[in-house]
Amino acid sequence: MFKKMLKSYDYTLVIAIVLLSLFGLIMVYSASMATAVQRYGVSSDYFYQKQKLFLILAAIIFVLTALFPYKILKNKRVLMTTVFSSLVVLMILTLFGHVAGGAQSWIRIGPLSIEPSEFIKLCVIIYLSAVYAKKQHYINHFNKGIAPPLIYLGLVCMLIAAQPDFGTVEIILLFAAAMVFSSGMSFKNFGKLGLFAGISAIPIVLIFHNKIFTAKRMSRFAVLQDPFKYQQTSGYHLANSYIAIGSGGINGLGLGRGIEKLGYLPEPHTDFIMAVIAEELGIWGVGFVILILAYIVLKGFHIALQCKDPFGSLLAIGISSMIGIQAFINLAGVSGLIALAGVPLPFVSYGGSSLIQLAIAMGILVNVSMFVTYEKKFKNKQEQLKINRGNVYPIRD
Questions:
Q1: pLDDT by residue (tens digit) across 287-346?
Q2: d(Cα 50, Cα 88) in Å, to the nearest integer?
Q3: What does the alpha-carbon distance between residue 350 and residue 347 come to, in Å, rounded to a whole number?
Q4: Does this model's pTM top 0.70?
Q5: Would the CA dihedral through 379, 385, 390, 391 be positive or negative?
Q6: Helices (H), the chain
């Protein structure tokens, strides 16, 4: 049975994840060398060495998660623990979190900094997937099937907004909308939900008005039309991103030969790593990243379509939407299509919390894919089904 399960894994998806992560490791080294020495006073390979350790840990977590039956996640005790722990962590962050990047969204443990909101995204995906899968029989009953699960979503978004971290709130709301839309409800009820969300947003905007519409945040919208007009002030980030992208052209300046990372681009190894890729590797490097990301996202949606289990299907939709939305926000921000939101590029940007969260998410997605393939391959064979805690295990006579 175990051999059959191993044969059922989607290794093309695994290869795509590995290729993009290794490419990201190389680009983190190239992008962070000058920043490490000039800004932080550490060795040039400081961020590279840390990212390498994160990547090794993420690989171990990915393998374990990929072997872990995803259906256990919809267990009632697991869900209650997920909901309770996520809310407690967010409340602790709001009161005692470490401030970095203008948001009180970090926990410091010795030399390590952890961003719990990255893992809260997964909590929301798991919770919404389990609840809406359970409510399939009355999914179009607005008061009973649609609205109640959104109370948890609203609490999570309010607590993250209080930090304030509106980039994360934006991502959570967008992939949650994709999950709710895919849950099976009618367009009429989805419209009602949109109206309900709009009305609910009014008190949030009123409460956090001073934090949402700050001069710094509003200036990000002003610079979109002409960042070079504000190059010495609020348009500094975007103007230098444009210069990096334009300098790379088709073929790029060559790996390690970028200029903008030498003190011009802020945090070139995190939010603006795509600008460094464009400058050094040109359209080929940018195209490689976009194609691999697109493959991962579209493969996730394909898995969701093939999965007959509503819980597994919604998990795949949530994970794929999260990665796709986060990638779009990063790429659109760096290229000036939308205002900068301080969102890392999945699998490529430096960051342990983001990388480990993605490892867990992709492990779950690969496990869902394995069960889909296993059931398709061996559904006609004489096998019995044993149900244990909501999990299905094929056994021989």
A1: 999 999 999 999 999 999 999 899 999 999 999 999 999 999 999 989 888 887 778 999
A2: 29
A3: 8
A4: yes
A5: negative
A6: 2-7, 11-38, 46-67, 76-96, 116-134, 149-161, 166-181, 187-207, 209-212, 215-222, 236-248, 273-306, 310-334, 352-378
